[in-house]
Amino acid sequence: MNETKSVYATYGGNSYLFGGNAPYVEEMYENYLANPGSVPDSWREYFDALQHVPAVDGSNARDVPHLPVINAFAERAKQGGTQVVVASGADSELGRKRTAVQQLIAAYRNVGARWADLDPLKRTERADIPELDPAFYGFTGADMETVFNTSNTFFGKETMSLRDLLNALRETYCGTIGAEYMYITDQGQKRWWQQRLESARTNPHLDAEQKKHVLERLTAAEGLERFLHTKYVGQKRFSLEGGESFIVAMDELIQKAGTAGVQEIVIGMAHRGRLNVLVNTLGKMPSMLFAEFDHTAPEDLPAGDVKYHQGFSSDVSTAGGPVHLSLAFNPSHLEIVNPVVEGSVRARLDRRGDHEGDTVLPVLVHGDAAFAGQGVVMETLALAQTRGYYTGGTVHIVINNQIGFTTSDPRDTRSTLYCTDVVKMIEAPVLHVNGDDPEAVVLCMQLALQYRQEFNQDVVVDIVCYRKLGHNEQDTPMLTQPLMYTKIGKHPGTRRLYGEKLVAQGVLGDTGPDDMVAAYRAAMDAGKHTFDPVLTNFKSKYAVDWQPFLNQKWTDAGETSIPLAEWKRLAERITTVPEGFTVHTLVKKVLEDRAAMGRGEINVDWGMGEHMAFASLVASGYPIRLSGEDVGRGTFVHRHAVLHDQKREKWDVGTYVPLQHVTDGQAPFEVFDSILSEEAVLGFEYGYASNDPNTLVIWEAQFGDFVNGAQVLIDQFIASGEVKWGRVNGLTLMLPHGYEGQGPEHSSARLERFMQLAADTNMQVVQPTTASQIFHVLRRQMIRPLRKPLVIMTPKSLLRNKDATSPVAEFTKGGFQTVIADKADLKADKVKRVIACSGKVYYDLAKKREEKGVDDVAILRVEQLYPFPHKAFAAEIKKYPNATEIVWCQDEPQNQGAWFFVQHYIHENMLAGQKLGYAGRAASASPAVGYAHLHQEQQKALIDAAFGRLKGFVLQK
Question: Are the beta carbons of 935 and 738 closer than 8 angstroms?
Fold first, then answer.
C-alpha cells in the first residue's frame, strides 16, 4: 500500500512510469491515438513530443510502433531528475493489476447491464458473467483496499480503492439502470455516456418537490386506469397498469425538451396506454374520453375509429416556453406509425428551416414484442441519418411489459437478448430501466434527451415493467401465464411502492399518498384534470391552416396550362447546365432533345412533360419533394432530374439539379434516392404530406409491384385515413404499370387493389397515356385546392413511344382529360362497337384497327378510373347512338386490373339496348406469365377479341 502511494507521488498521481508497466503504457498510447483528449495532459504532452520523432521506416505515419514509446518511457525513468521509479518485480505485478482494473471497468461498461436490477417481478436469476467478478482478473480479498488511479478510466474520484471502485461500478451499471453504449464507434459519444453515468452513479438527485411531482404523475396514471376499470367494466382500453412510470417518463421528456429549445413533439405509439397519454400527457379532458366510452361523442366522420387509435394535439407550457404536442393517429398495426411520425417531423423541420432537428422532436413508443418483431422498425431506423429522411434523432421509449401480445412465452418473442437489440444497427444507445424506480426513469429521460440534443442521434429508453391485466380487459392471462400473473397479483404497484418510499424519507406525511389518490378520484368523478398544463389560446406561427383544402369540389381542376412564353423560358432553364459541367453523352442528347421540345421543334415526350410540370410548379411557389429508389435518374432512365458530372463524383460539386435553378425565389425542388425500402419510405412520405398541403409530395416505386411491400400503409392510412380520422392528405404515388412481357413481378402495380379500396371519394386513380396528361395531372394536384391521395399508373414502354408524345399546344391550352375521345376519322352513326380501355393497351388497339382498316369501332381512353368520370364518359357514348356493343379491353387478367370495378360504372352510362363485354386475359393467380412467347400469344388474342366475336356479354341495358 505504501509502495503504491509512493509511486503516485513520483508522477503527480497520474500513473506508473516504469518499464514493467508495458501493457498500461501501450493502452494509454492507444487511447491517445484514438483521441488525444482522452488522456491526461501530462501523458498527452509526452505523446505529442514523440510524434515529432521520425518513425523507423522514415515515414511521418502517426501510428508509430508502440515498443519505442514504451522504451522511451523506461529510459526516462532511468534518467535523473524525473522522480520516476523503474519497476521492480513487485512493480510489475502492480502494473498487471492496474491493467486488470481497466479491464474490469471495461467489462462493467460492456456487459454490466446484464447484472442490472431491471425486472419489477424479479422472475429471473442473475446471469453468470465471470468478467464482472474481480476474481476473474486475479484479484483477492487482500487487494480490495489497494488504491488505484482512475482519473482517466472511470469518472469520479482520481483515486479509488478497488472496493470503492467495484461498488461504484455496480451502482452505476448494475442498479435499476442498465446502460448499453460501448458499441458506439464515435469516441466522443462513448466518453459522453461514461462521464454522465459514472460521475452521477445513475442517481437523479431529485429534490422534495420533484419527488412529489413524480408521485402525482404515478397517481394520475394509475388513477385513470382504476377509474375506467370500475366505471366501464369489460370495455377494451388496453390498460397501462404495471407501466405507470411511462407517464412519468413522458412528463419529464416534454418538460426538459421545452427547456432545451424544442417547440414541437410528435408522438407515435400503439394502443397500450394510449388513453392514459391522451388524458395525462396531452391534456384531453376526461369528460371527452368518458363520452366516447358512453357512446355519446359526436360522430362526424364517415367511418370513424376506436378511441384507442385516435390522435390528438395540444399546446402545453414548459419552463422553456410552449411546446406543441401531436399524437399521431395509428391503426392496430403497431409499429407502422413509426415512419409516418418521422415524415411528419421532417415536414415541420423543413417548414421552420431547421436542418439540424433541434426544434422538433420525434418520440416513438414501442411494445417490446413489436419492437423486436416488426420489420418496419428496422426500415425506419435505417432512414435515421440519410439526407432525405433525417429528423435530428428520435427518442424511443419501450413499454416493456415482458410478454408478447396475448399468450406468448417470452422465449418465443425474439431471438435476441434484449428487445431493443435492433437499434444497435445504427449504434443507438439503450438505457434499460426498472419501471418500479420512477426516479431512475426520470434520469433516463433526462440523459436520453441531452444525448439526442447534443449529437442528433437516436436513443432508446427501455422501461421494463409488466402488464397487470390481459392483452385487453376481456382477456384472462392466467390461462397461459400462471406463474407470471401470480407474481403480478402480489405486486403492490409502482405508485404504492414509491409513495411508501417518500413517506419513509419524510417527503410526505403518512396520509400524503392516499390524499393524492382521493384528489385524483374526485377530479375524475367531475370529468376534470388535477394537473393541466394545456395552453388554450396559444397559436404557433408555424401551424398549417387546412381550412382552404376542406370540402372542395372534384370538378374544379383549376388552370393547369401555362403561357407559351413561360413554357419556352422554363424549357430553356431546365436544359441548361453550368459552364464546365460535363454530362454523359447520352444525357447530353436527352437535354438537346428536350431543348428542341421546348422550342416546339419536336413533340414533347413523357420525361419532358413531367419536368415541365415540376418546373412550372416550383416557379409558381409550390415546393416539390420526390423520393423513391432511383428517382433521381429514373428506373427507366427517363427522368435525369439529377445530372452527374462525368469528371467529378463528389456530391457537393459533382451533381447539378436543373429544377433547382428555374427562377429566382423559386420554391424548393428536392429529389431523394431512398434506401431500398417501400414500407418505411412510403410511410415517411405520407407523414410528410399529412403535415404540408402546400408541397407536392411524390413517392415513386421502382416497379409498380414493389408497392406490395407497403400495402399496410395503403390500406390503413392512404385509403382510409380521411374517413377514419379526418386526415386530409395529398400524397402522390407513381407506380410503373404495363404489360410488356417482363413477367409476373414487373408488370402490374396491382391496379385492382386501389380500385377495390376506392370509395367515399377517398383518392384519385389515374392512368395517363400522353406526355401532356402527366403534365396536367401533376399540376392539377397542387393548383386545385383539393388534397386527396393521387395514384398514377405510370408507363414503361410509353416513356419512349412517339405515339405517346404531345405537341406544345396541349401544354399551353386545355387541361387533364378524364376521358380521351377517339381521334380517328370515324362516322359516328356507323360505329357499331365502342372499346373502352385504360393505359398502354390503347396503342395496341389503335394499331390493330389501322392494320385491319376497321371503321365501325371507336376506342375511348378512360384516363381517370376513380372517381369515375360519369359525365365525360356518358358524353362520349352518346356520340355513337347506333353502337350496340360496349367492350372493356385490358392487358391485365380478368380478376385483376380495373374490369370488375368499372363494369358497373360503364353499365350506368350505357344506352338502352347496349351490351357490355370483356376482352382481356383470363383470370389468373399470377399477375402475368413469365414466358415471352406466351405473353405475345395472350396479347394478340386479347386484341383480336376486342375487335372480334366475344364469347358472351356480361351486362345488358
Answer: no
